Amino acid sequence: MKQNRIMLIISANNPNKSLIDYTRDLSLNDIDLIVVDDGSDAKYSELFDKIVSEGHLVLRHAKKMGHGRSLKTAINHMMNKENLPPYIGIVVTSADAVNDIETILKLEKEMTTLPNFIILARQNVNYDNIRTFDKVFNRFTSFMTRWIYGKKIIDNFTNLRAYPISLIGQILATRGEDLDLEARFLAKAMDEGIAVKEIRLDNNYHVENKGKEYLLEKFKVFKQIISPFAKYSSISIITALTELLLFKILTTLFLFFNMEKDLIFIFVSIFFAKSMASILNIVLNKNYKYKNSGRKKITFYRHLLINFIKLGLSSYLIYILMNKLAYDEVRSKILVDILLFLLFYKIVYSWVFSSKNKKISGEGYGKEKRSKN
Asked: How many angstroms separate the CA atoms of 292 and 360, rounded?
C-alpha cells in the first residue's frame, strides 16, 4: 500500500458508461475513490450498482443537488470515519470531465511534494474544442485573479483540483451547492494566503458545454472570484459619495464667505470631508475585513496611514484640476477619487489587509461548523 495516498472524489449526474472502466483503472493504480451519484435518473442505477459490485463506494443523492453538495457529501463521509487512512489530500473532479489516470497520478505526486498547497490542474486554454467566448472569458477572469489576489491562474474553471487533507474541514464549512463552492473556497484561500499552484496537464481534458446552464456556472465562478474586489468597491463607492457630498457642502459654505479657492481652501474642505468619510470607511471595512485579522491594531494604523496619504494627494490633484484646468470642484473630486481608488486598491488589499495579519484557520474550523451544512 502507498504511504502517501489521496482520495479521489467524483461527482456524477447521468454519467457515461465509461465511468465503470474509469473507476476500474483507478483501482488498478491503487487510487481510492468515492463516487457521488448526484440525483441521476433511475436508468443509471445499474451503472452505479456495477461500480459498487467492484468494491467502490457510491454515495447517493435522491435528487440533483450540485457539484458542491456532492463534494460536501463525500467529505462528510470521510470525516465521520473513525479509522480514516492517512490521506495527504483529496482530488476532486466530475464524471463529465475526461482526465486520464496519468493525470491523477501526477496530481498525487505533486501533493506528495507540496502537501500544504491547493493544486489546480489546467488544460490548454487555447484548445481547439474550446469556444472563442470561453477563451476570452477565461483570460479576463485570469486577469482579474491576478489583479485582485496577485495569483497567476490561467484556468479558473478547471474541473480537476487537489486539496490538502488539513483543509477539507474548511471546504465542508464553505457556503455553496454547485461549482461556486470551490470558487468561493479558492477565493477565501487566496485571500488568507494559502499557497495555490497551477500545473499544466500533458493531455487536455474536456468538459462538454451545457448551453445556458454551462454559462450560468461560469458566471457563478467568476462572481466568487471577484467577490473581494466587488465588496471593497461597494464600500469605496459609499465612502466616496459621502465624501463628495460633504466636500460639496463645505466648499459651498466656504465660498459663501468669499474664500479664495487656493490649496488651503481645498485641503481644509477635503480634510473634514475625508475625515468623516474615513470613519465610515473604517467602520464598514471593520465588519468586512478586520473581523478576520489577527493583528487588528496594525491593520487599523495602516489603513489610517493610507487615508492620510490619500488626503494629501487628493488635495493637491484637485487643486491642479480646479486652478490649472478650470474644472469645477465636483468633477475634479470624482476624477481624483477614481484615480486614487485604482492606484491604492492593490496597496490596501495586499498591505493594509495583508494575509500576514490574518489567523488562518485549520481543520477544526470545519468540524466546529459542520452541522450548518
From this structure: 9
The pairing of strands 118-122 and 196-200 is: parallel
For residue 323, give the 3-state DSSP assignment.
helix
Using DSSP's 3-state secondary structure scheme, residue 245 falls into: helix
The cell for 215 is 454559462
Residue 133 DSSP symbol: H
pLDDT-based confidence at 367, cuts 50/70/90?
very low
Distance CA 46, CA 14 (A): 12
How far apart CA 223 and CA 78 sit, in angstroms, is 29
Q: How far is the C-alpha of 11 from the C-alpha of 125, rounded, in Å?
A: 23
Query: Grid coordinates in use for 117?
Result: 498547497
**DSSP notation for 20-70:** HHHHHHHHHTT-EEEEEEES--GGGHHHHHHHHHTT-EEEEESS---HHHH
Q: Which amino acid, one-letter code, is at 277? A: A
What's this model's pTM, rounded to 2 decimal places? Answer: 0.71
All three cell numbers of 198: 497551477
Which phi and psi angles does 277 have, rounded to 5°? -70, -35
The overall average pLDDT reported for the chain is: 80
CA 91 to each of CA 9, 114, 118: distance values in angstroms, whole numbers, following the listed order: 6, 14, 10
pLDDT exceeds cutoff 90 at 138: no
Angle between helices 227-256 and 179-191 (to 10 degrees): 60
- DSSP for 267-295 reads HHHHHHHHHHHHHHHHHHHHHHTGGGBS-
In this structure, are residues 52 and 37 in contact, taking their beta carbons and an 8 Å threshold? no
Give the angle subtended at the CA of 224 by the CAs of 221 and 229, to the nearest 5°. 135
Maximal C-alpha separation, the chain: 90
Task: Map residue 123 onto helix, strand or coil.
Answer: coil
Residue among 322, 327, 333 nearest 261 (CA): 322
For 64-74, how does the pLDDT look when each residue is reduced to its tens digit (9 = 90+)? 999 999 999 99
Q: Which residues face 107 on adjacent strands?
A: none
Residue pLDDT, tens place only, 3-59: 778 999 999 999 999 999 999 999 999 999 999 999 999 999 999 999 999 999 999
